[in-house]
Design brief:
Layout: E1 11-12, E2 18-27, H1 35-48, H2 52-55, E3 58-61, H3 64-73, H4 85-99, H5 104-109, H6 122-132, E4 143-150, E5 155-160, H7 161-166, H8 174-181, E6 191-194, E7 201-206, H9 208-211, H10 215-226, E8 239-248, H11 266-293, E9 298-301, H12 317-330, H13 336-361
Parallel strand pairs: 2-3, 2-8, 3-4, 8-9
Antiparallel strand pairs: 1-2, 4-5, 4-7, 6-7
Length: 362
């Protein structure tokens, strides 16, 4: 039987084109604020009665969004999802402080982060090990794309299931991939990794320096997979792509950069520059993806952060409680986001039923 999570078999339309529709989930970076998209994805799963990997042909993630992507698509030994969305939410609410844990001696030896990353890389690795250990990118339950940046070759590097299945160098362990996409400069040290059976070594930092909102990257992955000729690498003119995009943010910044920034130098910009770069990247990628996907069937799920709750590494119980309440308030009955979630869920349910029927008949 054909795979019910794959796109429905393309068929020529009345005007001679082959129409292919791809459903994409894109998840922003944002540290502990990854709890926000985790809660929103849970609501989508509740509304549809389906798991994320069943609803979307491609899931793209950056940084904490990359971690969520891996957690949503990590298989168990039977080929089923290793973790429920409830377990993923608990990772953020109960293990968040473990990921952002800084021993007193590290604060002292790095002079508060001036002479080294704020946190040791092993905090994230140790927190995620029970969730991802033993799994590889090529085994993801649906197609994925993760953003990173190689500081040695000075280029963006994108890891995907498709690429991992074809090239051993790009088949990272899911644990290494998670650390790589989330190695935010100043927060965590860079990561040196290689494929599970490859020879090429990568020297990676957080994908947020490339695209903190990975929507356009995931759409390009869909274009390459479904529209490009595998031999010539050129677009097939007879294929017409239709993108249905659910893009989930980790909170919109609201606190203004102080007017005194006109006179700032490296010392003053340092604490804010990562947030500024990541936030600007999100906005730019959103506009690119929106133009590519079109105005219809394009849902951007984003909440507004309070001025005192924008930190990527505030995993305190008080902030976790605030982030949960923020999502609950934003998605309550009658709210604009509640309507968007219902609209997206209705489409995704219908699309899943269509694909499942096509698979049954194949």
């Amino acid at each position: 039987m054909a795979d019910p999570t794959a796109p429905a078999p393309p068929a020529p339309s009345n005007d001679g084109y082959i129409d292919i529709t791809v459903n994409i989930l894109a998840i922003d970076g944002g540290g502990i604020r990854g709890l926000i998209p985790a809660l929103l994805i849970r609501k989508l799963e509740q509304l549809t009665g389906k798991r994320a990997h069943e609803l979307f042909h491609i899931i793209g993630g950056t940084s904490t969004g990359g971690i969520l992507t891996l957690l949503l698509t990590c298989p168990d030994k039977s080929g089923q999802p290793r973790h429920s969305i409830d377990e993923i939410v608990k990772l953020y609410t109960e293990k968040g402080q473990t990921m952002f844990q800084r021993p007193w001696w590290r604060a002292a030896t790095t002079v508060g982060g001036l002479l080294g990353s704020k946190y040791p890389g092993k905090t994230v690795t140790n927190a995620l090990r029970p969730y991802l250990e033993g799994a590889e990118l090529k085994e993801a339950l649906t197609d994925i794309v993760l953003t990173t940046y190689d500081i040695e070759s000075r280029e963006a590097v994108f890891f995907s299931r498709r690429r991992a299945q074809k090239k051993a160098d790009y088949n990272l362990s899911m644990l290494d991939a998670a650390r790589s996409t989330a190695a935010a400069p100043t927060f965590f040290p860079p990561v040196e990794v290689k494929g599970t059976h490859g020879a090429k070594r990568f020297h990676l930092v957080d994908g947020g320096v490339v695209a903190n909102n990975p929507a356009a990257c995931a759409m390009y992955e869909a274009h390459r997979q479904y529209c490009e000729d595998p031999v010539t690498k050129k677009p097939r003119p007879e294929v017409r792509m239709h993108y249905h995009l659910v893009s989930v943010g980790t909170g919109q910044h609201e606190a203004a950069i102080r007017a005194g920034a006109w006179g700032w130098g490296l010392g003053k910009w340092g604490p804010d520059i990562v947030d500024v770069l990541f936030d600007g990247s999100c906005d730019a990628m959103h506009h690119i993806a929106k133009g590519w996907a079109g105005l219809h069937n394009n849902w951007r799920l984003q909440v507004h952060l309070g001025k005192d709750h924008q930190a990527m590494d505030d995993a305190s119980p008080e902030n976790i409680k605030y982030l949960r309440r923020l999502v609950e308030d934003a998605t309550k009955d009658g709210s604009p986001m509640h309507a968007e979630l219902q609209q997206a869920a209705a489409y995704l349910k219908e699309a899943f039923a269509t694909r499942a029927a096509a698979a049954q008949g194949a």
